[in-house]
Amino acid sequence: MLIGVGLGPGDPQLLTLKAVDVLKNSDKVYVPGRLAKDLVAPYADAEILEFPMIRDIEVLNSFWKENADRIADEARKGTVAFGLIGDPNFFSTFTHLKKVMHRHYPDVETATVPGISSITSFAARTDVAVESSFEVSDGSDIGYKIHLKATQPRKIIEKLETEGYREFIFAEKLFSDSELIISRKEDIPEKGNYFSIIYGKK
Q: Which end of the chain is more exposed for a tag (fewer CB within 10 A), N or C?
């Protein structure tokens, strides 16, 4: 298995207990750079993989494929962790690695351990309180929407469809004993809990 492990913004005290546990118990740990390697060092001897910060997609694809080739066999035989700054599912190197892995090595199972992202880190360090809807952008076209407090998921989906969203996931009480995740639109209920989320993708 290959596990993307969020290491948070860079403060060693902001690693989660789950992240530390995965790092300690993985057969191999990789990281994309020195800062991540230093954060991982108390728990594992990590190896740095090269992921250049460039925009040439062909060159990037060759690096992602080379790294996937390197990891695949180890991830089949045991647990491989890939530790990275922030969260592995938000603007992350791991997202690209996972896509390439699924394309070329679909038999390798992947998972993620969330970390404190740059978005929540920014709010904490600048004393910004976000109390209503907000937009996060890196300058690219908006392709996703997350609707919190999705107590009427069906109505939310109907509205999102008018905005061009076509794929949906309903999630409720995440990481609790009563967690519920539904990825088939037709199975999403009329009513949701206060701790429910609708994810839409164009």
A: C
